[in-house]
Amino acid sequence: MTFRNPDGSIYLLAVNDDWGVGSQRFNVSMGRTNFSYELASGGVATFLLR
């Protein structure tokens, strides 16, 4: 999920709801922002993208 705030900042919420033994890797690309992240099983992460 992504959210845009009134100040123009964008937040990305990532959830790995797979409670198995493995983690999941995902890639994010937005304008000049590019990154990969590995999220553990059952994990939640929040990213600020400006």
List the helices and strands and how they pair.
Blueprint: E1 2-4, E2 10-15, E3 24-30, E4 33-39, E5 44-49
Antiparallel strand pairs: 1-2, 2-5, 3-4
Please state the overall shape, judged from the principal axes of the Cα atoms. elongated
Number of domains: 1
Strand content: over 45%
Number of DSSP helices?
0
Average predicted local confidence, pLDDT: 91
Query: What order do the SSEs take from the amino end to the carboxyl end, as H and E?
Result: EEEEE
| Cα distance spanning the termini | 15 Å
Order of the strands making up the biggest sheet: 1-2-5
What kind of sheet is the major sheet?
Answer: 3 strands, antiparallel
Radius of gyration based on Cα positions = 12 Å
Assign the structural class, choosing from mainly alpha, mainly beta, alpha/beta, alpha+beta, or little secondary structure: mainly beta
**Percent helix range:** under 10%
The number of distinct β-strands equals 5
